Structure formats: structure tokens, C-alpha cells
Amino acid sequence: HIDVSPLQVSYRSTRQIMEVARQILGHLAPDEPITAPREGAPVGHLRFDSKGSAATWLGPALQDLMRREAMASVAVLCADLAQATDWYQILERSQVPYLSLVAEQDFSFAPGVEVTDIRSSKGLEFDYVVLVGCDQDHFPDRDEKRHLLHVGATRAAHQLWIVSTGTPSPLI
User: Fold this and answer.
1) Which of 2, 30, 42, 64 shows its CA 20 to 30 Å from the CA of 56?
2) What 8-state DSSP symbol labels residue 9?
3) How distant, in Å, are the alpha carbons of 21, 47, 163 from that of 28?
4) Angle at CA of residue 116, ends 114 and 117, nearest 5°
5) Which residues make Cβ contacts (< 8 Å) with residue 22, sequence separation at least 6?
């Protein structure tokens, strides 16, 4: 005697983010698109040849973001914790301010940049989300990867950056 009522309206994410999230879901998306009443910035898909070039861009971009919006919550989300640890070390060397690695769901819920795996962020919300490592190796065309990438994308309230190195994921 249980009826499932799918989400019809997204109040967390902007229309632009929800459109990309729907595209990521592909054939798993509900028949009717989710309504998102808020407009926002376009979703950025940033493509780099290597992790080094991505880091060279991302470190200063996050520094600039935290200078402009010191009260913002930013999540750098990765496919798994090993990748998150790697990106944390890269961003730490880039001197990104207010940076922390979230390894056991020990989120601070304070302004700053938190680096973690997508699964740990499920159910949470951040002003900005950066999905890193969105390449074919980490996110191949498989249903569980579609779902994982969708969860990561929909953590963003205001803006979403998708960072690919090498061959971008076919899910993007």
C-alpha cells in the first residue's frame, strides 16, 4: 500500500544544474523533467589534457572564489576517496584557503572548500560543486556511474563545474 511520488520540483539546484543532471541520468531520467524555479549560471564543463593542467587552473580558480565569496561552501567531489585524497593534496599545494579533506563524513558545515567522494556528500548541499575526474575511466557509461554522477551534480545549489581530464565521460 505504498505509493511512490517522484520529486517534481527542485528547490536546491538551479534550472541549469537540473538540466545537466537530467542529461547525466539519460535513460534513467523520469519521463517528466523536474521543475527548477531558480535561474543560475551556466554549468561549466572544463576539459583539460592532463590532471596537471586541470590543477593549474582549478587551484587559482578556487583561491579567487574564496576571496570573492568567503562565506561560500564549496565541495570538490570525486569518484572515490583515493581520488579525493589525491585532489586534496594537489589543492593543498596550490594553497587553496579553508581547504579540508572529508574522509569519514566529518563535514564542517562551515564556509570553505571540502574535498571528498560523491557518496559521502549524498543528502548534502553546497553553494558550489566541482566534480573532478569526470573522465571515461572514472565514469564509464554504466547505470551506477550515471546515478553517482547525478548525485554529485545535484549537490550544487548555485553553480556546478565539471572537470574532465583526458577523454571526457560519455555521461556528460
Assistant:
1) 42
2) B
3) 11, 25, 23
4) 155
5) 29, 33, 34
Q: Residues 95-125: pLDDT tens digits?
A: 999 999 999 889 999 999 999 999 999 999 9
- Residue 35 pLDDT exceeds 90: no
The one-letter amino acid at 76: V
Give the CB-side neighbour count of residue 43, counting CA atoms within 13 A.
24
Q: Where are the beta strands (DSSP E) in the chain?
A: 44-48, 73-78, 99-101, 112-117, 126-131, 156-165
Classify 169 as helix, strand or coil: coil
| Among 164, 170, 154, 165, CA closest to 40 | 154
